[in-house]
Amino acid sequence: MTAVLLLPRNLLIAALLAYRRLVSPLYGQVCRYHPSCSRYALEAVQQSGAAVGTALAAWRVLRCNPWSRGGVDDPPARLNPAYRITPLGFVRPAEQPGG
């Protein structure tokens, strides 16, 4: 059941990973913030879910403009301890003790 609830988040993560691998290298290093906007979006969706992560990423992209000072701007850490991020970047339910 939990895997079904994580499906929208993981589909969005797959799209962001594809973007970071295929499209992002074409632009080069143009983001004024660290991590880059695409990395920020990936981390925000991983930790906060599809809806909140998308809202955080949209706000970040709006702030990333030529008049921005930029700097270090990490997404807020909100990962529920019931979930874990796999080595490939997807979110899965955490292993339950004794199970």
Structural commentary:
The protein is mainly α. The protein has five helices and four strands, in the order H-H-H-E-H-H-E-E-E. The chain has a two-stranded parallel sheet. A hairpin with a 5-residue loop joins strand 3 and strand 4. The mean pLDDT is 89. It comes from Amnibacterium endophyticum.
Mean pLDDT metric: 89
| CA-based gyration radius | 15 Å
**Treating each run of at least 4 consecutive H or I residues as one helix, how many helices?**
5
Instruction: Indicate the percent of residues in helices.
Output: 40-55%
Class by alpha and beta content: mainly alpha
Unreliable runs: none
| Shape descriptor | elongated
Distance between the termini: 16 Å
User: How would a textbook summarize the main sheet?
Assistant: 2 strands, parallel
Write down how many β-strands occur, each being a DSSP E stretch of 2 or more residues.
Answer: 4
Q: Tell me the strand order in the biggest sheet.
A: 1-2
Percentage of β-strand residues: 5-15%
Q: What kind of oligomer do you see?
A: single chain
Order of helices and strands: HHHEHHEEE
